[in-house]
Each structure stands twice: as structure tokens, then as C-alpha cells.
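Incident log, support desk, overnight shift.

02:14 A customer reports that sequence design results differ from what the structure should imply. Their input is reproduced verbatim below. On-call engineer (initials T.W.) acknowledged and began investigating.
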């Protein structure tokens, strides 16, 4: 009886220390962890949950390091190894900070003033990695088996917002074009009904006036590919890697008009899987000192090469490089992978920023909402004499107004209906 009471007391003390360690871990994120819990829940449903989802039972020794709570988790090989909860939360926070940086670069890249004045310098550098890095960052998440639950989560996270915003932007585009006498209802309806299920940028541009909506269906397909790879056995993984190598080398040789017919951006998803797998292996290394310096040097050299050779890598327009132009392909891939690495390196510095966490957790909302706001801001600023100032004001203004719109929308039922 006494021995059982002592064991129960020790278990209670371990639970108390576990709660205290969790609270201290939350303080590392500036007390903002609860603000992004819904974001991670959506990623968990989509099959891209981070390492936090791997947490198991606590087995921390109560007499040592109470602030570091370890867990047991299964690796892909089936071995059990401890996972540090604090490190897991930091990884998730770094991922959000990286998304914040990337979505700001997306807003900058969609700035027409930036496009017109810095096309062959800053513009092609930003476009070499700013959207593609979102695909690479998906490798931070734990792969999930492709079952009904996983597909339902991915549908709710990516395809449902895609359907809603395609319908909204398509309707606005139709009203605008119909008022100008440029399109009739039947023609637009035919374009829309074709563009919605296929999800390719040329068709979406014809039906909605926006190419950028291609990202969501392509990301949906990419998540399927990544989950297939992550949950496959060794032999199947080798086959998948061989297939993605063929796709990466061969797809750019296919005419763009044919690639544009691939449904749901599957061609771009297949093309980006190889750089994503390479990035995943590099990310497993210890990102310190020399590796960060090497990555920065590769990014600088590849960026200069992009400018020198005027290489335009635009995923939305299927401007990609393969076996026909091996040097261009190497430069483009180096810029993409090192660019994503540079973003992660910066994110490791600012991961405690509340603003970065807030923006990163809402990167999808910003991506979908910023386009009309950006158009208004660019229209207001394009006649300014100092174009660098015009670029800054238009981009910053777009971010502020978009974030304000999201802040207001989140206090209504609309946000839950669209984004879950």
C-alpha cells in the first residue's frame, strides 16, 4: 500500500514538472503558441503536421533539466528515439517565420512597379525561389498515409479555399469584362467550368484574370507525392526518386502548351519534388556556421548567374529548365534550394518574432487576398517620381491592408467557413 502511494506521488510530481516545462516552452514563443494552434491543426488534417505531432509519452527524469521534456517517437526505420518538445516547437516556429518571409517576397514579386524597374535583377532572383520554396518547406512536415482522413484534410486546407476564391475572383472578372463588352456569359461560363477542375494557370487567367490561383491545386498534388514518398518502403522510395529525376529532367522538354494541360498543376508538382527531396536531406544537417556560409555563397553565385544569363524561372508560366539546358537547370535548382535555405537561415534568427509568427500562420490567407489590394496600391503609387519609394510604399501598404482585412475577417464566421 505504501509503495503504491509512493509511486503515485512520483507520477504526480512528473506530471507537474511536465506542465511547467510546457509552459516555459510556450514562453519561448512569446506566449503566442495558442494563437497558431488552429494553423497546426489544419496542417495535421492535411497530412503535413510538424514534428509536434510525433509527441508521445513523457519519460523525463525529474531530477535533471526540468525545462527540457523529452518524448518517444518512431522514426521511419521503426526505432524509438527521444524528441525534445522545445526543439519541436522551435522547428514549427521557424517554419512559420520562413513562410512569413516568403509571403512578403510573394507580395513584392506581384508588385508591377518592381516588375517594370527591376525585372532582370531583383525580379528574376525573387521569382527563382519565392513560390517554389513553399513546396520545399512542406518537407518540414511528417508524411501521412494516404487515407480518407488525409485526403479530407488536404481538400479542406487547399482545394476548398481554391474553389471559393476562384469563384469570387471569377465572378468579379466576369462583371468587369462583361461591362466592357469583352466577354459574353456563355463564353465565360465555359472557361470557368474548364478552369476550375483543371486548375492550370493559363485557364485560370482566362476565367478569373489571375494566374496565381494555380498554386493551391499544385500544392495539393505535391502533398500527395510527398506523402507517397514519405510513407513508402525503401524499394518504392527508390522508384519514386527515379521517377522524379526523369520528371525533373524531361518535363521542361515538353511544350509549355502541353504542360499547361496537366490537371491541378501536376506537372509543376512533379518537377519540384526532386529539389524538395534534396532540400529535405540538406535540412537534416546541422545548420550552423560553415553550412550557412556555403549556402549563402551558393545563393549569391546562382543569383549572379541568373542575372548574367537572364534566366527567367516562372513556375506559373512553366518556364522551367531540364536536360536540354543542363547549365540553366543547375543554376535554377541551385537558386531555388539555396534560396529556401537562406530563408530558413533568416527564419532561425527571427523565429521568436510575434509578427513573423502571425504572418506565417496566415500566409495562405495573405496569398489569396492580397491581389486586388496590391492592384489598388500599385495604381496609387505608380506615378511617384522615386520608383524605389513607390515599390516600398505599395508593397508595405499591401501587406498592412491585407493583414488588417484578415484580422477583421477572423472575427466573423467567414474565415471559419473558408479556411476551417
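02:41 Re-run completed on a clean worker. Output:
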Amino acid at each position: 500500500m505504501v509503495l503504491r502511494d509512493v509511486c503515485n506521488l512520483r507520477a504526480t510530481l512528473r506530471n507537474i514538472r511536465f506542465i511547467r516545462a510546457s509552459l516555459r516552452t510556450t514562453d519561448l514563443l512569446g506566449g503566442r503558441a495558442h494563437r497558431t494552434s488552429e494553423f497546426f491543426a489544419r496542417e495535421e488534417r492535411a497530412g503535413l503536421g510538424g514534428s509536434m505531432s510525433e509527441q508521445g509519452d513523457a519519460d523525463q527524469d525529474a531530477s535533471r533539466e526540468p525545462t527540457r521534456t523529452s518524448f518517444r517517437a518512431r522514426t521511419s526505420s521503426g526505432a524509438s528515439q527521444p524528441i525534445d518538445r522545445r526543439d519541436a516547437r522551435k522547428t514549427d516556429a521557424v517554419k512559420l517565420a520562413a513562410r512569413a518571409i516568403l509571403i512578403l517576397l510573394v507580395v513584392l514579386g506581384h508588385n508591377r512597379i518592381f516588375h517594370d524597374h527591376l525585372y532582370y535583377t531583383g525580379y528574376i532572383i525573387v521569382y527563382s525561389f519565392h513560390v517554389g520554396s513553399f513546396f520545399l518547406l512542406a518537407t518540414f512536415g511528417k508524411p501521412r498515409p494516404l487515407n480518407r482522413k488525409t485526403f479530407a484534410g488536404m481538400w479542406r486546407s487547399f482545394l476548398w479555399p481554391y474553389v471559393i476564391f476562384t469563384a469570387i475572383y471569377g465572378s468579379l472578372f466576369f462583371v468587369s469584362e462583361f461591362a466592357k463588352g469583352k466577354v459574353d456569359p456563355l463564353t465565360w461560363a465555359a472557361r470557368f467550368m474548364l478552369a476550375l477542375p483543371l486548375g492550370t494557370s493559363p485557364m485560370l487567367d482566362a476565367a478569373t484574370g489571375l494566374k496565381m490561383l494555380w498554386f493551391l491545386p499544385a500544392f495539393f498534388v505535391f502533398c500527395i507525392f510527398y506523402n507517397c514518398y514519405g510513407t513508402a518502403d525503401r524499394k518504392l522510395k527508390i522508384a519514386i526518386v527515379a521517377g522524379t529525376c526523369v520528371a525533373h529532367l524531361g518535363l521542361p522538354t515538353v511544350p509549355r502548351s502541353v504542360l499547361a494541360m496537366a490537371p491541378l498543376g501536376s506537372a509543376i508538382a512533379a518537377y519540384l519534388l526532386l529539389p524538395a527531396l534534396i532540400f529535405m536531406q540538406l535540412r537534416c544537417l546541422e545548420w550552423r556556421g560553415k553550412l550557412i556560409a556555403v549556402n549563402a555563397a551558393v545563393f549569391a553565385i546562382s543569383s549572379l548567374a541568373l542575372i548574367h544569363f537572364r534566366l527567367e524561372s516562372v513556375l506559373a508560366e512553366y518556364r522551367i529548365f531540364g536536360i536540354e539546358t543542363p547549365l540553366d537547370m543547375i543554376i535554377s535548382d541551385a537558386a531555388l534550394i539555396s534560396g529556401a535555405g537562406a530563408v530558413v537561415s533568416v527564419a532561425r534568427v527571427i523565429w521568436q518574432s510575434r509578427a513573423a509568427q502571425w504572418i506565417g500562420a496566415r500566409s495562405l490567407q495573405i496569398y489569396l487576398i492580397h491581389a486586388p489590394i496590391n492592384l489598388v496600391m500599385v495604381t496609387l503609387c505608380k506615378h511617384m517620381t522615386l520608383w524605389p519609394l513607390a515599390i516600398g510604399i505599395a508593397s508595405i501598404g499591401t501587406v498592412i491592408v491585407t493583414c488588417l482585412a484578415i484580422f477583421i475577417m477572423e472575427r466573423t464566421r467567414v474565415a471559419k467557413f473558408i479556411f476551417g
